[in-house]
């Protein structure tokens, strides 16, 4: 039987305000345990929350960037549950009247078509404390208690794990470009839970869904969803009845396991938070906030295609993060070669950053220096191959490409006479390859060229090498 | 001169006239406490050392020629659910034993800033749940007029301490009549202000949408003095309101000519003690003599107040009291193995019977499947009751009723029958439901036990209440019948 997959995502993202949502404590990451605390975020007797206006502003801003409508009246509610990371044993969140509703994100699917994924709601709430499990017992660090979060709930609009990943990628790039959050999954400032079910293809009734938690990367999200689809299909086909469980993804084992089943689900007993008054949000404020939203990734993407003439695919990759887009734009303008700028950023530079687990923000070289490298290649001063070496040095030292070229004597050799000497030397030593080539083995030529480049330590102008090799072989 | 026999405003004048020292006044109250509190049981904690140090500082300021504004060096005792930095805050519960508040409540801060001296922390019904002070986990408080009788609750000790001259001024808290009912039963003046008039920051929460700090003194002037010192908007409490605080001193005039008083017939129904009724009827005559226009009215929704109150207050309490879990502070069961075990055992051992009853009641009322039938419906009833009052205040300046249906009852008399205990708040609770201000003033005695008269005012019209209460008090002697 064929199945259709239904996926919805619940994303928690930390909002980048300086202070916590219900008190004046700093939201700074790190710090000695329990030093960023006060009676409010410790839940001491008598302490009362007061709402940080900036958090509401950032919530609205994220809603506007995600095409939501903003509520006129907002309310905070209590979600009651006992857990040691929750100092009041209730979380102040929003239930019936969230800040934002009915938005969407446009994602581009593998086949290039566009799809709108709906956003059900966005609400603001407080983060919990951090539990540290030690051999001596469990310790609680309340520094994170009360850090503001926005919870962004999608509609069950995604039909494959790939779509879910695309959605999350898009969401992340929009949120970080509006600067309401830095969205670092590995630091926990972006967290994602998924609701997933399967149904018979063509059916309009959703199957029994499970909620999956603890997916800490895009890869984990995709793997967990794929695992869960297989598990659910196997269960259905073996006649097993699926239950509405909350499951935990174990990345090392590569499987989901039951955290709690529906019968043990909490009754959160939501009710209005009497310590905070109703939020009245007027249009004037919303418009003020709208003005602060910068160019969003999809707007940037379209502009880059138009302004720089780079392919759509390049523009889409380059605008994935704000910092990459900025780096590209500067490099493209200075070098006057946008395509090379995007090639470098998408290719070698992305590869090196990935290997070193760093971000564009951390690069030691500047767009001016990358532009200089592009110009050196375009002017024939160095070869592309040398450029690839130089970029590695630039990455680790931050030195300018000109300095590196001078220090390491890497200027391209275009002197036909001296190259011809090497060509003939190599051909003399590899008569077998010449034979192979003449017998139709095209690869043999590449082998010879490689040896010549090695001999000249990459400095020989590749076009001239190619030309000379062809000429010389014909003579033999 | 026995300074503890004087009222707060009298002491303030003596201090500022340099006739007595702040320290002498405070010492006088501590000796009174030493003499009688073993019988009364009002104090859970006495802060003599700190108080005396603060007195010395104020005396030095007076000696240097400064005039002490505000409370003027007069001592105040504080209910043990209001945070005072460095002092215990038990809420008369075992679950908070050992907890020392690391910060001042806003009202505490204001008392300090307004030159008040804090005497210590006062006994109460556990977590302010009760009407007789019999729910204290530590000791009982007796009614100073008759030791066999309760002082009322939950601010029983706040009223008893003033009546027994152990403090000239005290702070209590109200969720449903907890200042006015004991004030009535102990023969002192007690005010519950408009919801939002006084900051709740630092006041251990019971029912967040109902709780207010209340003030108690021996006469209306004292009560107004303390109220003026602590009222006002507070950025730490979002529910406080920026409406300016009136100068209550200006309200202390006898003239009430032409003021309209409504008498809601529902507050004079079956449960009302005949002798209490007589006292209140007499009081009405006095007010008419003073120039007020009195008219009977009906508030038909009154009968639903108590039911709505017990659902809303218990629901909110079930959530507010969740933080007492043995994890961070207070009592932790020695037997516990893991987190859930800590919760269950610490809370089972730490909370008393009435508190557990309300937590269970409130949890039930908020549960999925019952929320609409109980909590949501109670909120609707509350709204209707509010509207009924709002409409009434379009015509009347104040409403008048007895504060409590009876005088102080005997220990154990109502503990077996919870409902009869709850009914002792029947005239006070509608005010909390609506968020209105109200004051109780002494209006007579039955068998040597005080009777209280209640004035209910419009929102943020504490000034009108003080005016009415003062006018009545000026024409009678009940408040002078000190112990």
Characterize the structure shown.
The complex is a heterodimer of chains A (476) and B (483). Chain A has 476 residues and is α+β, with helices and mostly antiparallel strands. In chain A, 42% of the residues lie in helices and 20% in strands. Chain A has helices at residues 39-42, 53-65, 161-177, 218-237, 283-291, 297-308, 312-318, 322-335, 338-356, 367-378, 384-397, 401-408, 416-429, 431-438, 443-455, 462-475; strands at residues 3-14, 69-70, 73-74, 77-80, 90-93, 100-108, 114-126, 130-134, 137-141, 148-154, 190-200, 210-215, 246-250, 255-260, 271-272, 279-280. Chain A has a 9-stranded mixed sheet. Chain A has a 3-stranded antiparallel sheet with strand order 5-4-15, with no helix packed on it. Chain A has a two-stranded antiparallel sheet with strand order 3-16. Chain A starts with a strand and ends with a helix. The model of chain A has no long low-confidence stretch (mean pLDDT 92). Chain B is α/β, with parallel strands linked by helices. Chain B contains 15 helices and 11 strands. Chain B has an 11-stranded mixed sheet with strand order 1-3-2-4-6-5-10-11-9-7-8, sandwiched between helices. In chain B, α9 packs across α11. Chain B is globular. The mean pLDDT of chain B is 96. The A-B interface holds A 39, 42-51, 78, 80, 82-84, 87-90, 138, 140, 267, 269, 271, 273-277 and B 81-83, 89, 91, 96, 99, 101-103, 105, 200-205, 207-209, 235-239, 315-316, 318-319, 322-325, 327-329, 339-340, 343, 363, 366-368, 371, 375.
Low-pLDDT sequence parts of chain A:
none
Biggest interchain interface, per-side counts: A-B, 30 and 45 residues
Largest sheet of chain A: 9 strands, mixed
User: What Rg of chain A do the Cα atoms give?
Assistant: 29 Å
Described by its quaternary structure, the protein is: heterodimer
Order of helices and strands of chain B: HHEHEHEHEHEEHEHEHHHHEHHEEH
End-to-end separation of chain B in angstroms reads 16 Å
Q: Provide the helix percentage of chain B.
A: 25-40%
């Amino acid at each position: 039987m064929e199945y259709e997959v239904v996926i919805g995502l619940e994303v928690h993202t930390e909002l980048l305000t300086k202070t916590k949502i219900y008190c004046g404590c700093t939201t700074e990451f790190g710090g000695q345990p329990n030093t960023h605390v006060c009676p409010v975020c410790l839940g001491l007797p008598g302490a009362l929350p007061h709402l940080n206006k900036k958090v509401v502003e950032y919530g609205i801003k994220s809603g506007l960037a995600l095409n939501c409508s903003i509520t006129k009246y907002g309310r905070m509610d209590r979600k009651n549950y006992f857990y040691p990371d929750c100092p009041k044993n209730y979380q102040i969140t929003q239930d019936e009247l969230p800040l934002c509703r009915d938005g969407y994100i446009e994602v581009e699917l593998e086949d290039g078509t566009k799809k709108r994924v709906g956003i059900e709601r966005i609400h603001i709430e407080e983060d919990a404390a951090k539990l540290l499990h030690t051999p001596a017992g469990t310790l609680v660090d309340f520094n994170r208690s009360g850090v503001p979060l926005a919870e962004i709930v999608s509609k069950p609009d995604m039909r494959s794990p790939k779509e879910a990943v695309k959605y999350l990628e898009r969401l992340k790039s929009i949120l970080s470009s509006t600067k309401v959050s830095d969205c670092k999954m590995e630091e926990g400032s972006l967290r994602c839970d998924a609701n997933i079910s399967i149904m018979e293809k063509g059916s309009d009734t959703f199957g029994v869904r499970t909620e999956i938690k603890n997916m800490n990367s895009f890869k984990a999200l995709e793997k967990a969803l794929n695992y869960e689809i297989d598990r659910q299909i196997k269960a259905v086909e073996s006649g097993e009845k699926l239950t509405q469980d909350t499951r935990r993804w174990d990345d090392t084992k590569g499987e989901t396991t039951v955290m709690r089943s529906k019968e043990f689900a909490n009754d959160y007993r939501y009710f209005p938070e009497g310590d905070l008054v109703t939020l009245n949000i007027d249009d004037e404020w919303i418009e003020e906030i709208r003005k602060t939203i910068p160019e969003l990734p999809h707007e940037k993407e379209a502009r880059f295609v138009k302004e720089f003439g780079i392919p759509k695919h390049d523009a889409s990759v380059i605008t994935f993060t704000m910092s990459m887009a900025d780096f590209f734009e500067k490099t493209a303008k200075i070098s006057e070669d946008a395509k090379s700028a995007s090639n470098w950023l998408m290719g070698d530079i992305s590869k090196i950053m990935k290997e070193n687990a760093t971000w564009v923000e951390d690069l030691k070289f500047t767009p001016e220096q990358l532009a200089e490298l592009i110009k050196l290649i375009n002017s024939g001063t160095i070869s592309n191959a040398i450029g690839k070496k130089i970029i590695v040095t630039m990455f680790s030292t931050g030195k300018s490409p000109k300095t590196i070229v001078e220090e390491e004597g890497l200027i391209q050799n275009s002197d036909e006479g001296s190259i011809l000497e090497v060509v003939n030397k190599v051909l003399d030593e590899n008569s077998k390859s010449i034979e192979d080539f003449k017998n139709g083995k095209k690869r043999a030529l590449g082998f010879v060229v490689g040896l010549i480049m090695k001999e000249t330590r990459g400095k020989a102008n590749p076009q001239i090498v190619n030309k000379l090799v062809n000429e010389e072989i014909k003579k033999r | 001169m026995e300074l503890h026999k004087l009222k707060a405003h009298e002491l303030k004048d003596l201090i500022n006239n340099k006739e007595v020292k702040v320290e002498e006044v405070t010492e006088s109250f501590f000796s009174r406490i030493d003499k009688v509190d073993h019988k009364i049981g009002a104090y859970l904690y006495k802060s003599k050392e700190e108080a005396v140090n603060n007195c010395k500082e104020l005396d030095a300021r007076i000696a240097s020629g400064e005039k002490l504004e505000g409370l003027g060096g007069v001592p105040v005792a504080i209910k043990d659910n209001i945070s005072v930095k460095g002092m215990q805050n038990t809420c008369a519960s075992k679950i908070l034993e050992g907890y020392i508040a690391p910060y001042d409540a806003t009202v505490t801060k204001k008392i300090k800033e307004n030159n008040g001296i804090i005497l210590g922390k006062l006994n109460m019904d556990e977590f302010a749940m009760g009407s007789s002070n019999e729910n204290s986990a530590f000791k009982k408080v007796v009614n100073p007029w008759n030791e066999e009788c309760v002082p009322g609750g939950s601010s029983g000790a706040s009223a008893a301490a003033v009546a027994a001259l152990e403090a000239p001024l005290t702070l209590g808290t109200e969720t449903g009549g907890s200042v006015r009912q004991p004030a009535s039963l102990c023969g002192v003046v007690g005010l519950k202000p408009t919801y939002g008039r006084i900051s709740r920051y630092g006041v251990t929460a019971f029912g967040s949408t109902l709780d207010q700090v209340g003030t108690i003194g021996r006469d209306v002037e004292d009560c107004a003095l303390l109220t003026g010192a602590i009222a006002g908007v507070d950025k730490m409490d979002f529910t406080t309101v920026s409406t300016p605080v009136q100068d209550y001193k200006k309200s202390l005039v006898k003239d009430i000519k032409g003021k309209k008083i409504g008498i809601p017939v529902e507050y004079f129904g079956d449960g009302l003690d005949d002798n209490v009724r007589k006292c209140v009827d007499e009081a009405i005559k006095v007010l008419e003599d003073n120039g007020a226009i009195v008219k009977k009215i009906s508030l038909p929704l009154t009968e639903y107040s108590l039911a709505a109150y017990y659902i809303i207050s218990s629901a909110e309490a079930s959530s507010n009291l969740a933080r007492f879990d043995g994890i961070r502070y207070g009592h932790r069961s020695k037997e516990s193995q893991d987190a859930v075990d800590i919760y269950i055992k610490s809370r089972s051992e730490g909370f008393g019977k009435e508190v557990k009853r309300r937590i269970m009641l409130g949890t039930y009322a908020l549960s999925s499947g019952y929320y609409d039938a109980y909590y949501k419906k109670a909120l609707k009833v509350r709204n209707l009751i509010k509207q009924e009052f709002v409409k009434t205040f379009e015509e009347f300046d104040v409403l008048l009723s007895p504060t409590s249906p009876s005088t102080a009852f005997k220990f154990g008399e109502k503990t077996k029958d919870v409902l009869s205990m709850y009914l002792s708040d029947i005239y006070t609770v509608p005010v909390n439901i609506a968020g209105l201000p109200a004051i109780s003033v002494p209006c007579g005695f039955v068998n040597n036990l005080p009777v209280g008269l209640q004035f209910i005012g419009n929102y943020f019209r504490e000034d009108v209440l003080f005016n009415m209460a003062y006018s009545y008090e000026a024409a009678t002697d009940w408040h002078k019948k000190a112990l």
